[in-house]
Design a protein that fits this description.
The structure is a single chain. This protein has 353 residues and is of the alpha/beta class. The protein has two domains: 152 residues, Rossmann fold; 187 residues, Dehydroquinate synthase-like, alpha domain. Helix content is 51%, strand content 12%. The strands form two sheets. It has a six-stranded parallel sheet with strand order 1-8-5-4-2-3, sandwiched between helices. The protein has a two-stranded antiparallel sheet with strand order 6-7. Strand 6 and strand 7 form a beta hairpin. Helix 9 packs antiparallel against helix 10. The model has no long low-confidence stretch (mean pLDDT 94).
Length: 353
């Protein structure tokens, strides 16, 4: 990137108790011109039912905003929302939900050129502030598409404490994966004679460090939720500044993508998959995985492949397929010969840990 490159930053990041109940005041402080503009709230039917009072309260605060129940997290759905927004001259899209909702709303806002306010109900991955949306295409394959990052991000700490604990663990996993991703980014830069964007690198490192070295071990405490929220946003901004997902996505993400593409029947979240992938990635990189394994134990983040139904054979096969899921992406896998015997040893080490 050269010094003329422009990137976007959110105008507002609010992490507060009961933030959803005074989201209009928060937006009024930062982007007063948006108050009174025609607004569409996008969420999933399940969440609209679960959080009816809060979502209706937000709708009321934003001038009786229409609540739109999205059907799925697909490209077609995002385009349908963008079309509705354009035809009805909606000026603001609010996404309320987890990664699926946020990615769909974010892409709809991107293609309709509307202001996007992100209001997560869980902290499951760093897509809440990233310049990418992962959407289903026809035939159920998922694609990562470039888009604009949110104008505002509002995190209600009370919402996060009531979210399923697995979603918070997933967000922790996605943050910790930056350890191996940053190594791979430097390796790729050396091999391609390109430059690592220092500021993006520093932000991704800070994102990882803030969670890895956090003194607060209670995942439901407001302190931890604030730290994790900021860490996930920092990861998104690192990608925006770098102009790619490299600060946050390396060989451990290739492992997760291989599971998604070749073993879709496995019930494992993205963040858990990259956390599991970060252990072998560490070993391939010549780094000790002991610190990460100790960290995962502390928070009860399960990286035993058997707990997700992954056998030794599948584990070796996933790593072999990981080499092919993103052609042209240089990681430690580009330098590591496929060795089923070594993978069996790593598998056993993860089982025993």
């Amino acid at each position: 990137m050269n010094q003329h490159t422009r990137f976007n930053l959110p105008i507002c990041l609010a992490v507060e108790e009961d933030a959803f109940f005074h989201s209009d005041e928060i937006i009024g402080r930062y982007i007063p011109e948006m108050i009174g503009q025609k607004t569409l709230i996008v969420s999933e039917p399940f969440l609209i039912g679960l959080y009816r009072e809060k979502i209706e309260d937000i709708s009321h605060d934003f001038g009786g905003a229409e609540i739109y129940p999205m059907e799925n997290a697909s490209y077609e759905q995002a385009v349908a929302i963008a079309k509705k927004v354009s035809m009805e001259e909606v000026k603001v899209i609010i996404g309320i939900g987890g990664g699926r909702v946020l990615d769909t709303a974010k892409y709809a806002a991107h293609i309709s050129k509307t202001v996007y306010i992100c209001m997560p109900t869980s902290l499951s991955n760093d897509s809440l502030a990233s310049p990418f949306s992962v959407l289903e295409m026809e035939g159920k394959t998922r694609r990562t598409l470039s888009c604009k990052i949110p104008t505002a991000i509002i995190v209600d700490t009370n919402m996060i404490t009531t979210a399923p604990i697995g979603q918070t663990l997933s967000g922790i996993g996605d943050t910790i994966a930056k350890h191996t991703a940053l190594y791979d980014w430097k390796l790729s830069a050396q091999k391609t004679n390109s430059r690592v964007e220092d500021f993006a690198y520093a932000l991704a490192r800070m994102s990882y460090d803030s969670v890895y070295h956090c003194d607060e071990k209670d995942m439901n405490s407001r302190v931890f939720i604030r730290i994790l929220s900021r860490a996930l946003v920092m990861g998104g901004l690192a990608m925006e500044i770098a102009g790619s997902s490299r600060p946050c996505s390396g060989s451990e993400h290739l492992f997760a993508h291989a599971i998604e593409e070749y073993y879709p029947e496995l019930k494992i979240s993205h963040g858990m998959a990259v956390a599991m992938g970060s252990i072998p990635a560490c070993i391939f990189q010549g780094q000790s995985p002991d610190g990460l394994m100790q960290f995962f134990r502390t928070y009860g983040l399960q990286v035993d492949p058997r707990s997700y139904g992954i056998t030794e054979e599948m584990f070796a096969d996933i790593w072999e397929k990981a080499r092919t899921v993103r052609p042209g992406r240089i990681t430690i896998l580009s330098e590591t010969p496929h060795d089923p015997a070594r993978l069996r040893e790593i598998y056993q080490r993860m089982v025993e840990a």
